Amino acid sequence: MALIINEECINCDVCEPECPNGAISQGEDIYIINPELCTECVGHHDLPQCMEVCPVDCIDKDPKHVEDKESLYQKYLKLIG
């Protein structure tokens, strides 16, 4: 499942450089996560790095993009391929 940043985002800029897939970018009002690039850090780290560094805990699982760990790993393989 890809992740999503909710409206509690304070635009602190700490999540964007932590994403190994470049899935996080500045949106119109808050940071956004591209679900096509988000693997929840599967293939890179044990835990999603954006969630680890977020000071306001505004990153959640995106119910619109449900994926299991194997699907996330396959996406990771395509991204690095």
UniProtKB/TrEMBL annotation:
Keywords: 4Fe-4S, Electron transport, Iron, Iron-sulfur, Metal-binding, Transport
Cofactor(s) recorded in Swiss-Prot or TrEMBL: [4Fe-4S] cluster
SUPFAM superfamilies linked: 4Fe-4S ferredoxins
Stored Gene3D superfamilies: 3.30.70.20
Alphabetical list of InterPro entries matching this protein: 4Fe4S_Fe-S-bd, 4Fe4S_Fe_S_CS, PSI_iron-sulfur_center, YfhL-like
Start and end residues of each 4Fe-4S ferredoxin-type domain: 1-29, 31-64
Record protein name field: 4Fe-4S binding protein
Annotated organism of origin: Methylobacter tundripaludum
Source lineage: Bacteria, Pseudomonadati, Pseudomonadota, Gammaproteobacteria, Methylococcales
